[in-house]
Specification:
By secondary structure, this protein is an all-alpha fold. About 80% of the residues lie in helices and about 0% in strands.
């Protein structure tokens, strides 16, 4: 019985912890604007051969900000997935609050971490984008969970 419990916990929390590790690694110099431009610029030039350098710079900026939003939306989803099914009642009943706290704390810690990476710049605005992505996912999940409960017949 204990073996099944451990396997269940790993199944529940491993994706969340793995994604947090990915975010940590994405905050290193490997994912700096200079390095991501080596992938994004050629792709944009291939898709739009007549694109100007100004447009490339603007699109690169927007793609990077969308990536912030998306990576934290995934974090919010994985946090909710972990906490909704928790064996601990407090986590299960307060999944949205606990998930939101995790998203906010990790977004702020992520930018703090970036302040020590020479090729990166820490920005409260990036933290706000991160938080917005995570909270967007949590709000969507809460909405779908609530609407699903309202459409189920009473028992």
């Amino acid at each position: 019985m204990a073996h099944a419990s451990v396997r269940t916990r790993i199944w529940r929390y491993a994706p969340l912890l793995s994604w947090m590790l990915f975010i940590y690694l994405a905050s290193t110099s490997e994912f700096s604007a200079q390095n991501t431009s080596r992938m994004i610029r050629p792709l944009l030039l291939w898709l739009f051969p007549q694109i100007s350098e100004e447009r490339i710079a603007a699109l690169h900026f927007l793609i990077r900000k969308a990536a912030h939003f998306t990576e934290y939306a995934v974090l919010g989803f994985l946090a909710a997935r972990a906490f909704v099914g928790s064996s601990r009642r407090a986590l299960r009943e307060n999944w949205i609050i606990v998930s939101a706290f995790l998203v906010v704390a990790y977004a702020l810690l992520d930018e703090f971490h970036q302040s020590f990476v020479s090729a990166r710049t820490a920005s409260i605005f990036d933290s706000l984008i991160d938080i917005a992505g995570g909270l967007f996912a949590l709000i969507c999940l809460a909405y779908f969970k609530r609407s699903r409960l309202q459409t189920q017949p009473n028992r």
